[in-house]
């Protein structure tokens, strides 16, 4: 097995540009916005391309920081990754020179751990760092590791790295997770495509991004089927072929822009969004009285007549798909500040995800953190501009939403978090009529 670089290296976190969003709120947003490809699909698809030596081509890939980091990580391994035009990536993993995913990659992006399954299944070994990502609570990878062990892998953990090796070809297995894990399901599924025999995964994630990954694997020649809503079965193949795939639209970005239209009293059409991927979220809009309409490849939100102040309070609880996505809880929480009455938020997935609400309070929101999983929102409250700090990707986008609805100017520190997962978000908001700029720290505030 390839040996990891010496552990006495001094790890230096990547230099992060000190940038802010400056937002002048109080303007209704109007117009059409294109919804980009899903971050949570694109990253797994790039990892899946390592299952074959043939070229794979992906379109509708979002131009975001996490994708750039994944592409660079693959190149460091010796994989050929081309980016011939915007939103298009081509991957050819004919050979891999260095079966080692370092701390630098893991610290930037949790999805780097998705390389465990494909590299182990195809090359028989890999050394991979414990992953990083947003600080929204414990997200252990133990379930990924145990799934690989169930398929015959030998894995040891030393000094922050997993040393994984398969004595021969991985073997099909019954993988029974104690609860739904999206990345765990996908990692096990990728490994199983090249394993010897049949693998059954229960309870398997039901997210649209997981089904998008299944669709791509089938194009590669894999035998992967969802035999029940919570069951995926795989019969391993000896080799897979290259394929082309169009990344599914990002339902989290779509939900974010839906809230933007509602909370500013505007009217926005989301081009490329799919209503069938947002049923639980749309049900919240129904309960709150937010007008919306669905088409074959678009969603429209119209709050120009019934804007903030006329929305109804409602209780929300996150859940694994098809429930309300935890990534949509922060933007929904902002919307609840503009509803009449008391709403309860129950965050069931991550124990630290509600901490960002302390920043929302700086803007005037009447929010009480009951415990790590529950919060109470009292509406209607008037939001006002303030200096706030982004702690993670989804909270960052949600603070932009609050700033768009607030009176006065808001300065949002930590803009780099948002660009991990949203393609050109400031341009999209500006095109809808927002007064928003991304600037270096210390630049003079907006003046018009």
Topology summary:
Layout: E1 19-24, E2 30-34, H1 39-48, E3 55-59, H2 65-77, E4 80-85, E5 88-92, E6 100-101, H3 103-108, H4 116-123, E7 125-129, H5 142-150, E8 154-158, E9 161-165, E10 174-176, H6 182-192, E11 198-202, H7 208-219, E12 223-228, E13 231-235, E14 244-246, H8 251-263, E15 267-271, H9 279-288, E16 292-294, E17 298-302, E18 311-312, E19 316-317, H10 329-336, E20 339-346, H11 357-362, E21 366-371, E22 374-379, E23 387-389, H12 393-405, E24 409-413, H13 425-431, E25 435-440
Parallel strand pairs: 2-15, 3-14, 6-7, 10-11, 18-20, 19-20, 23-24
Antiparallel strand pairs: 1-24, 1-25, 3-5, 4-5, 7-9, 8-9, 11-13, 12-13, 15-17, 16-17, 20-22, 21-22
Give a structural overview.
By secondary structure, this protein is α/β, with parallel strands linked by helices. The protein folds into 2 domains: 19-36 and 249-440, Alpha-beta prism (UDP-n-acetylglucosamine1-carboxyvinyl-transferase, Chain); 39-246, Enolpyruvate transferase domain (UDP-n-acetylglucosamine1-carboxyvinyl-transferase, Chain, Alpha-beta prism). The chain contains 13 helices and 25 strands. Strands 18, 19, 20, 21 and 22 form a 5-stranded mixed β-sheet that branches. Strands 23-24-1-25 form a 4-stranded mixed β-sheet. It has a 4-stranded mixed β-sheet with strand order 2-15-17-16. The longest helix is centred in the first third of the chain and has 13 residues, at 65-77. The radius of gyration is 22 Å and the shape is elongated. The protein starts with 18 loop residues before the first strand and ends in an 8-residue tail after the last strand. The model is unreliable at 1-14 and 133-139 (pLDDT under 50).
């Amino acid at each position: 097995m390839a040996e990891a670089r010496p552990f006495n290296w001094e790890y230096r976190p990547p230099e992060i540009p000190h940038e802010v969003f400056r937002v002048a709120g109080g303007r209704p947003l109007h117009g059409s916005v294109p919804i980009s490809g899903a971050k949570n699909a694109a990253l797994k698809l790039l990892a899946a391309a390592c299952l074959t030596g043939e070229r794979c081509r992906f379109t509708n890939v979002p131009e975001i920081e996490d994708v750039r980091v994944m592409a660079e990580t693959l190149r460091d391994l010796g994989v050929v990754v081309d980016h011939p035009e915007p939103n298009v990536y081509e991957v050819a993993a004919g050979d891999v020179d260095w079966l080692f995913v370092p701390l630098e990659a893991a610290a930037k992006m949790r999805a780097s751990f998705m390389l465990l399954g494909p590299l182990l299944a195809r090359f028989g070994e890999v050394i991979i760092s414990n992953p990083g990502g947003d600080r929204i609570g414990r997200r252990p990878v133990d379930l990924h590791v145990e799934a690989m062990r169930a398929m015959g892998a030998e894995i040891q953990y030393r000094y922050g790295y997993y040393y994984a090796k398969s004595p021969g070809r991985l073997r099909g297995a019954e993988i029974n997770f104690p609860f739904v894990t999206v990345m765990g399901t996908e990692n096990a599924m990728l490994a199983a495509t090249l394993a010897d025999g049949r693998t059954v995964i229960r309870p398997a994630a039901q997210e649209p991004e997981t089904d998008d990954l299944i669709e791509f694997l089938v194009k590669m020649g894999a035998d992967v089927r969802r035999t029940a809503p919570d069951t995926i079965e795989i019969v391993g193949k000896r080799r897979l072929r290259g394929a082309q795939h169009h990344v599914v639209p990002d339902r989290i970005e779509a939900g974010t822009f839906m809230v933007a239209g509602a909370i500013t009293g505007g009217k926005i059409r989301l081009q490329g969004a799919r209503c069938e991927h947002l049923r639980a979220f749309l049900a919240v809009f129904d309960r709150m009285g937010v007008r919306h309409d669905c088409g074959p490849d678009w969603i429209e939100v119209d709050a120009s007549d019934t804007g903030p102040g006329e929305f109804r309070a409602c209780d929300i609880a996150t859940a694994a798909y098809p429930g309300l996505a935890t990534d949509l809880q922060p933007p929904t929480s902002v919307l609840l500040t503009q509803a009449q009455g008391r709403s309860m938020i129950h965050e069931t997935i991550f124990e630290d995800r509600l901490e960002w609400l302390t920043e929302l309070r700086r803007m005037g929101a009447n929010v009480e953190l009951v415990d790590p999983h529950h919060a109470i929102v009292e509406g209607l409250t008037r939001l006002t501009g303030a200096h706030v700090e982004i702690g993670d990707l989804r909270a960052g986008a949600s603070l932009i939403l609050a700033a768009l609805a607030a009176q006065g100017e808001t300065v949002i520190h930590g803009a780099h978090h948002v660009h991990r997962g949203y393609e050109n978000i400031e341009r999209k908001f500006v095109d809808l009529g927002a007064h928003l700029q991304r600037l270096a720290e210390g630049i003079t505030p907006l003046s018009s």
